[in-house]
Write a structure and sequence with these properties.
mainly alpha, Helix Hairpins, single chain
Length: 171
């Protein structure tokens, strides 16, 4: 009896809802007079209609992180310097690729950290919440772990060659 009451109240709720599922999830249909690509993005949950627009949104995220996040800029500069030093020291292509991959991992973790922080800030607004602190601290910790791993990888590849170069210059 209780189960039937819950099912009927759920059905009543769904029937009385002002938006149906098809309205929530459907993409807007384009008319011949509408431009193929809209200049503004109506809903964040919509899929970009073109691959180029997807790249534009991704570039906007990278630009935002580079402009607003000090640590993203620091990691970018250090990654470029490490890869450049690898080229200067004539590391193999595989070794340079490993340095670039680990640097890219750190940058990807910074982007994820920025996204998590933004969503948490949006959720808790101006109030303090212990779970928000945990989420932000864990995301920052993930960046730290990847950055430390990247330093170890780059150090193990670059330092022996760098010490050998310095030693040969002193002789």
């Amino acid at each position: 009896m209780i189960l039937q009451k819950d099912q009927s109240s759920t059905s009543t709720f769904l029937a009385s809802s002002s938006l149906s599922m098809s309205q929530d999830l459907s993409m807007p249909t384009s008319k011949k007079s509408d431009p193929v690509v809209k200049r503004n993005r109506d809903f964040a949950w919509q899929i970009a209609p073109t691959l180029m627009l997807s790249f534009k949104y991704a570039w906007a995220g990278l630009s935002y992180a580079f402009i607003t996040q000090r640590n993203f800029r620091i990691h970018t500069v250090i990654g470029i310097l490490a890869a450049s030093l690898g080229v200067f020291l004539r590391l193999s292509a595989v070794e340079i690729s490993v340095i670039c991959l680990t640097s890219g991992l750190v940058l990807a973790m910074e982007l994820i950290n920025t996204a998590i922080e933004s969503v948490v800030d949006l959720t808790v607004k101006q109030s303090y919440h212990e779970l928000a602190k945990i989420a932000k601290d864990c995301a920052a910790g993930a960046v730290l772990v990847s950055a430390i791993a990247s330093v170890f990888v780059a150090g193990s590849l670059l330092l022996p060659r760098l010490f050998a170069l310095i030693q040969s210059a002193m002789q």
